[in-house]
Write a structure and sequence with these properties.
Blueprint (H helix, E strand, L loop, with lengths): L9 H34 L10 H13 L5 H17 L1 E2 L2 E2 H6 L4 H15 L4 H19 L6
Antiparallel strand pairs: 1-2
Length: 149
């Protein structure tokens, strides 16, 4: 004789609960994997804009242009200082040796420059927007999201 299993049957509830538990574990695992993937992607970035030399900044900008991340104007902006130092041997007290050896936070420096430009009150909206766009692109590349407040 076959018995009917109803929704109130303990067998159905335990089967349903097991399914819910498996789904919850799968969702938790998926979230953890996504977080791990994001963390690994950040660590696997080709360039670290929080700690690089002017020479590395220039090389990174050119590579990111080739990958379609940066525009030609952004490359010119990021490579200009190093190229002038390389051409002249020195610029504003920075030597070629320093440009190849001294590391700095590119994103932090851009934020400081933007703050200085804004405080002077002479920057056009285009200049401010260009700085903000550059900072955003580098933060997205570096951290995987827009980190500026």
């Amino acid at each position: 004789m076959i018995s009917n299993i109803t929704a109130s049957s303990p067998q159905v509830l335990s089967g349903h609960q097991a399914l819910k538990n498996r789904q919850a574990m799968t969702e938790t695992s998926s979230v953890h994997n996504a977080q791990t993937d994001t963390h690994n992607n950040i660590r696997s970035r080709q360039f670290d804009f929080s700690n690089m030399t002017l020479e590395e900044q220039s090389n990174a900008a050119e590579a990111l242009y080739q990958q379609g991340v940066l525009s030609l104007g952004e490359v010119a902006f990021l490579t200009g200082r190093y190229n002038l130092i390389k051409h002249d041997g020195e610029l504003g007290g920075a030597t070629l040796a320093q440009a190849k050896a001294e590391k700095f936070d590119v994103i932090g420096q851009l934020k400081e420059n933007l703050s200085a430009v804004k405080s002077q009150g002479t920057a056009t909206q285009d200049v401010v927007r260009n700085y903000e766009t550059m900072i955003n692109k580098l933060e997205v590349y570096q951290f995987g999201f827009h980190a500026s407040a």
